[in-house]
Specification:
Length: 364
């Protein structure tokens, strides 16, 4: 059966090559064994990794092999790197933090703003709510700055600086970033050593530094590991204009998008910290597509004024016996749209006299 499947697969691949009129041309692909051989002494933040020790080399090889096994993930790391790493590198340099710290963000989130762990850590640097707030991030039902590359990186820098003051080593600081400084300090006290490579820690933290090191090795020489990316293969860097916006009340993001001459998704992608469909009342600094800042404020004021006028014309007073589904059907609007416009939960009760915003077709 297996031989039959293999034969079919060969036929399909041959057919596809004929269909596109090209012969398959292979690229140099290094063996996994050769990939494991270090070409130079290995360091993390200028702290030497004792790879001459068999057990250390074995732990490193394990993480490197696991990373290389998931080649699509590594390609995505590399492709995303041009989008985000230049900003991380710049902030690290300005804060006098070792450049190798940037690999923590890749190990933690694969450079995905919406990454979420089973422990509810979120964002590029995988902050828990309490730690994120401690280091200055706004985290509430409207905004979650753990998803903002600039705010979260500054918070990570502050946190790691504090950890370095406590630990006296960037390797231990990275371990404490993963495990918590109090738990690492307790293990150091109990085990009688402050050498990360000699500490017996929680399994995830035991692997964490070696995962970071494997990422560093791949990024330092992608071609050595069989990743041949041209300049066009990388995702382009973020390009944007910073603007200050004063929301006199909770304002639909689509209004901001229209003022920026773009669409809702573009604003959400540039500002992943904004939750939901509205920018809440107050002053905000947000990103808009590059080149759209000119004239933005005038366009925004005009669009906001028109939206407020339309909103006043679109009020429905809840009557006895009403429910959200009946109201949505009555006005021929999606129930989800009704929930969005009024920032309601489907399970939340409504009462006679409540005022609901209902935009008619062409009015919103």
């Amino acid at each position: 059966m297996k031989l039959r499947l293999l034969f079919v697969l060969v036929i399909v691949l041959f057919s596809l090559s004929n269909t596109y009129g090209e012969e398959f041309k292979g690229v140099p692909f290094p063996s996994l064994i050769s990939s494991l051989k270090p070409s130079a002494p290995l360091e993390f933040c200028d702290e030497r990794v004792p790879t001459e020790i068999q057990e250390i080399r074995e732990r490193l090889e394990k993480e490197l092999l696991l990373a290389l096994w998931d080649r699509p993930q590594v390609i995505l790391w590399l492709k995303r790197s041009r989008r985000y790493l230049p900003y991380i590198e710049k902030m690290l340099k300005e804060s006098n933090i070792p450049d190798d710290i940037k690999y923590i963000a890749i190990a933690e989130s694969a450079l995905r703003p919406h990454a979420r762990s089973r422990k509810r850590a979120v964002g590029f640097w995988q902050f828990m709510i309490q730690t994120g707030r401690k280091y200055g991030l706004i985290i509430n039902e409207h905004i979650d700055e753990r998803r903002n590359i600039f705010a979260s990186t500054q918070a990570a820098i502050r946190y790691l600086k504090d950890l370095y003051e406590i630990m006296g080593s960037w390797t231990l600081s990275a371990a404490a970033y993963n495990m918590g400084e109090n738990r690492v300090k307790a293990e150091i006290l109990e085990q009688g050593t402050d050498n990360y490579y000699q500490l017996y820690l929680h399994n995830e933290t035991q692997r964490f530094i070696f995962r970071i090191l494997s990422i560093k090795l791949i990024f330092s020489n992608p071609a050595k590991y069989g990743f041949y990316l041209s300049e066009e293969d990388y995702y382009p860097p973020l390009e944007f204009d910073w603007i200050q916006i004063n929301c006199l009340q909770d304002t639909p993001i689509r209004i901001i998008a229209q003022a920026a001459k773009t669409h809702f998704k573009a604003i959400k992608d540039l500002n992943p910290e904004i939750r939901g469909h509205y920018s809440v009342k107050g002053n905000h600094t947000i990103l808009i597509p590059k080149g759209s800042a000119k004239g933005f404020q005038c366009r925004y004021q005009d669009l906001f004024k028109r939206w407020v006028e339309t909103k006043k014309e679109s009020v429905y007073i809840v009557k006895k016996g009403d429910n959200l589904s009946l109201i949505a059907d009555r006005f021929n609007v999606p129930l989800v749209a009704l929930l969005i416009w009024n920032k309601l939960d489907l399970k939340a009760p409504i009462h006679p006299g409540d005022r609901l915003i209902i935009y008619r077709k062409g009015k919103n």
